[in-house]
Amino acid sequence: MSFLKKKRKTTEKKLSPSPQSTPNPSLPDDLLLSYFARVSRLYYPTLSLVSKRFQSLLSSVELYKARSHLGNTDICLYVCLEFYPCSQCPTVPPSRPTYVPGLVAVGSNIYSIEKLSSYVSILDCKSHTWSEAPSLPVKLVSLSASVLDGKIYVAGCSYKDDDSPDSFENTLEVFDTKAQTWDLKTIPCKKRERNIFYFRESNIVYSRSACIDGKFYLKTSTEAVSYSSKEDRWDLVGEDMCDSMISHYYCEIENVVYSASDGILRWYDSEADKWELLKCLEGLPKFPRGSRIRLADYGGKLVVLWEGDVFDLRHIGGYKKIWCAEIELERWKRREIWGKVVWFDIVLTIPKSCYLAKVLAVTV
Length: 364
Prior knowledge:
Blueprint: H1 2-15, H2 29-37, H3 44-47, H4 52-58, H5 61-70, E1 75-82, E2 103-106, E3 109-113, E4 120-124, E5 129-133, E6 142-148, E7 151-159, E8 168-176, E9 181-185, E10 199-201, E11 204-206, E12 208-212, E13 215-219, E14 224-228, E15 233-237, H6 240-243, E16 250-253, E17 256-259, E18 266-269, E19 274-277, E20 279-280, E21 293-298, E22 301-311, E23 319-332, E24 336-351, E25 355-363
Helix pairs in contact: 2-5
């Protein structure tokens, strides 16, 4: 009997309503935005997990306006991977088909310019959303895109008549990212050579271009030329500069071209018209033979990404690691540039069937 009374009292105690808790007052959006604007963007993925409200504020236009007003921006690296449809490569944000030579970064946006279809897509790296830009006026068989003064220079070749493979026409289109308009530029060697922008590397068509010191440089099949937008003039330049501009093994940092062709880090001395070794580099691992290497300008520093050797062959052909190194650059004795390795480490593991295609530095 006493046991039943005790059980009834316990049950009643459990069923009795608890006093209502007073909810904590939420902070106003303006205050949260002011706080978020002062925090590095690296913490945003973690903060967005707190609530849907946080997630909405962290992807809002107002936040990035506040960051810009405070002068608080971060440089983020975006890595483009090539892979077969069956590969389980990570894609964040959700990717869409891209043509690697047509990928360029302008401010906080990545532009994807496709050959043949001539479509142009824009990835807003603040909100990780895609939008469409005006298409290329012509459909190009091959192209190479570079950025100069906020404009995208797209050099390539198109079929001149009825998609005939024997009738190429060289084209240079310039896209104004502010006005969102295309402008056709005349190429002086356009009639002299039919396919100056037509290159092959491992059965893939590529063309090579770079923007350095206010000029657009282009490697043709027989020579190298430069275009000055201020003077609206074309000039012949030393061909040696473009010899090591193979695929995407090069980048430009503060008007100096750096290359990782043949697995060796070099820089181009424009005064001497020759390539020089990037010296020092103590502690930097040796790149595996045949490894894909990609370079990027990381706020005046050189970032190097490369593929490691394949391991764990038991799982669908194996995996490979992507390594990253950050290198500070310092000029010595006018004709020497030394590199100081700040850090290097493994940053990503991908299936063997995935390939390191391109690295873009974006300011957000």
